[in-house]
Automatic annotation (TrEMBL):
<protein>
    <recommendedName>
        <fullName>Aromatic amino acid beta-eliminating lyase/threonine aldolase domain-containing protein</fullName>
    </recommendedName>
</protein>
<comment type="similarity">
    <text>Belongs to the threonine aldolase family.</text>
</comment>
<dbReference type="GO" id="GO:0005829">
    <property type="term" value="C:cytosol"/>
</dbReference>
<dbReference type="GO" id="GO:0006545">
    <property type="term" value="P:glycine biosynthetic process"/>
</dbReference>
<dbReference type="GO" id="GO:0008732">
    <property type="term" value="F:L-allo-threonine aldolase activity"/>
</dbReference>
<dbReference type="InterPro" id="IPR015422">
    <property type="entry name" value="PyrdxlP-dep_Trfase_small"/>
</dbReference>
<feature type="modified residue" description="N6-(pyridoxal phosphate)lysine">
    <location>
        <position position="253"/>
    </location>
</feature>
<feature type="domain" description="Aromatic amino acid beta-eliminating lyase/threonine aldolase">
    <location>
        <begin position="53"/>
        <end position="341"/>
    </location>
</feature>
<dbReference type="InterPro" id="IPR023603">
    <property type="entry name" value="Low_specificity_L-TA-like"/>
</dbReference>
<dbReference type="InterPro" id="IPR015424">
    <property type="entry name" value="PyrdxlP-dep_Trfase"/>
</dbReference>
<dbReference type="Pfam" id="PF01212">
    <property type="entry name" value="Beta_elim_lyase"/>
</dbReference>
<dbReference type="GO" id="GO:0006567">
    <property type="term" value="P:L-threonine catabolic process"/>
</dbReference>
<dbReference type="InterPro" id="IPR015421">
    <property type="entry name" value="PyrdxlP-dep_Trfase_major"/>
</dbReference>
<dbReference type="InterPro" id="IPR001597">
    <property type="entry name" value="ArAA_b-elim_lyase/Thr_aldolase"/>
</dbReference>
<keyword id="KW-0663">Pyridoxal phosphate</keyword>
<keyword id="KW-0456">Lyase</keyword>
Length: 411
């Protein structure tokens, strides 16, 4: 009897996790239906907690419209250039970016790596990039591991710009003297992740362009959040990209697609990028199922991004209004979809995150990322509404008040 029950239970589990089941079940187990989890409250009642996940804008889940578009996507073999949906998103992206052509790739990391590889095809190539850039910080030095390209880091200012003097000083002039490599490329990031979504002004980007032209260098823009930058600057994305030789853009950040990035550039650049993508194992076949989600993301991106910025700014202003001695932020530094909280000891960043994510009577769980002992990062995205923002704010208020009263969090 017991054996039968266990066997049945196992069977159900297998069924629930089988790929086919995922596809046909209207609510597969891995989609939290109302972004809620269930927990036992103080009085033993089962109560639902709302989860507001602000750790990153990568945490979004594909919505019903995306899933429908994925299910219905027309597909073909993209390595043969025959996937109509991939071709459509590439045309759409080229128009949006104002580039001759565009290429669908698996991730922002692959987009950056491919771009560097195509710009730096000779041995001893060097790139100049920010010492706080994603490319330098979070991509395993892939340009060195895979492409044999040397990264020369440049000092990053508080607002994400590179120190122009340092940038110019780090250009190598000695080539072909055998002591020196050859500087070929400058990499910028807009908006800038590690400085909290700061946006590079167009005037600054023009200055970098002038510098690059003076020394015959190319510019690659890590535009994982290019659309956030465009929204913040009040310009079309193409106006930013115009100042660069190539760009990569993430669909899987705040725009809400489950996967995918795009590279934009001149036609011959993209032709080489297509070769590099295949060599790296990124030649995908009937990948229109993914491009279809990306198209949904791109078409509604403007509204999403605008709302994210509004919510982030509202949150930052409200935190400032709290006037807490242990947790603050400067709304003037909130330019896109991120808020950096400054935490004052004895409260520490991780401690604040633990308290925010602790379940309590508020019924709200807020997930945030401790960037350092004194900094906590919050990121807005497609799956965080204005209501969620207000809920997160209430939770933060409660945590800070409790902390001042010396109470320890439950759980
Ligand atoms: C997320 C991110 C990337 C990498 O994107 P993945 O798709 O996660 O590989 C690159 N640059 C910046 C600025 C990012 O934020």
């Amino acid at each position: 009897m017991l054996k039968t029950a266990v066997a049945l239970g196992l069977l159900c589990r297998v069924r629930r996790t089988s790929a086919r089941h995922l596809y046909t079940d209207p609510a597969p187990f891995w989609i939290p239906t109302v972004r809620s989890i269930y927990s036992r409250g103080r009085i033993g009642r089962i109560m639902a907690s709302v989860v507001v996940d602000l750790r990153s804008d990568t945490v979004t889940k594909p919505c019903a419209e995306m899933r429908r578009a994925m299910a219905e996507a027309e597909v073909g073999d993209d390595v043969y250039g025959e996937d109509p949906t991939v071709n459509e998103i590439q045309r759409y992206a080229a128009q949006l970016l104002g580039t001759e052509d565009a290429l669908f790739v698996t991730s922002g990391t692959m987009g950056n790596l491919i771009s560097v590889m195509v710009h730096c095809r000779h041995r001893a190539s060097e790139i100049l990039l920010g010492d706080e850039s994603h490319l330098y910080f979070y991509e395993q030095g892939g340009v060195a591991q895979v492409a044999g390209v040397f990264s020369r880091p440049v000092r990053t200012l508080k607002d994400g710009r590179l120190d122009l003097k340092d940038l110019e000083n780090k250009i190598q002039h000695g080539y072909p003297d055998p002591h020196f490599g050859q500087t070929r490329l400058i990499c910028l990031e807009n908006s800038h992740n590690r400085t909290g979504g700061r946006v590079l002004p167009l005037s600054y980007m023009r200055e970098v362009r002038e510098l690059a032209d003076r020394y015959g260098l190319k510019i690659h823009l890590d535009g994982a959040r290019l659309l956030n930058a465009a929204e913040a600057l009040g310009v079309e994305p193409a106006e930013i990209v115009r100042l660069c030789d190539s760009v990569s853009l993430c669909l899987s950040k705040g725009l809400g697609a489950p996967i995918g990035s795009l590279i934009g550039g001149k036609a011959d650049f993209i032709a080489e990028a297509r070769r590099a993508r295949k060599m790296l194992g990124g030649g995908m076949r009937q990948v229109g199922v993914l491009a279809a989600a990306g198209l949904v993301a791109l078409r509604r991106a403007k509204d999403n991004v605008r709302l994210d910025h509004q919510n982030a700014k509202m949150f930052a202003k409200a935190v400032q209004d709290l006037g807490s001695p242990i947790c603050s932020t400067d709304p003037a530094e909130v330019e896109s979809n991120m808020v950096m909280l400054t935490v004052t000891p004895p409260l520490l960043g991780q401690d604040l995150c633990d308290r925010l994510s602790a379940e309590d009577q508020s019924g709200v769980v807020v997930k945030a990322l401790a960037f350092s002992p004194v900094r906590v990062r919050l990121v807005w995205h497609r799956d965080v509404s204005t209501e969620n923002t207000l809920q997160a704010l209430e939770k933060l208020k409660g945590v800070l008040l409790n902390y001042r009263d010396g109470a320890t969090p439950r759980g």
